[in-house]
Write a structure and sequence with these properties.
Distance between the termini: 10 Å
Number of domains: 1
Low-confidence stretches: none
Strand order of the largest sheet: 1-2
Radius of gyration: 15 Å
Strand content: 15-25%
């Protein structure tokens, strides 16, 4: 039996990131302009590890008592949706 071709797709949205920030008390030290700027990056970036790190850095910079690894965990588990396409010939 031949293994199927499996494609993985990840996505996130500024709404999902906004909700995660609210739910977890993040971005409490940033201005509205800072927040909108960060969310504009979310709109443009694919949620891979490098970009999760990039956004987490900004969130930590504008939050009290957070670590990058914790914020990356929150982003990965609360904002990123993963879907799959399986092609079996």
């Amino acid at each position: 039996m031949k293994n199927p071709e499996i494609k993985e797709f990840k996505r996130w949205s500024e709404d999902a990131v906004r909700l995660a920030c609210i739910k977890n008390g993040l971005y409490t030290c940033g201005s509205s302009e800072d927040y909108e700027h960060m969310l504009s990056w979310v709109r443009r970036l694919y949620p891979d590890t490098e970009n999760l790190y990039f956004i987490a850095q900004d969130i930590v910079k504008h939050s009290d008592g957070e670590t990058i690894s914790n914020v990356m965990f929150i982003l990965a588990n609360q904002t990123v949706t993963t879907t799959f396409q399986v092609s079996e010939d």
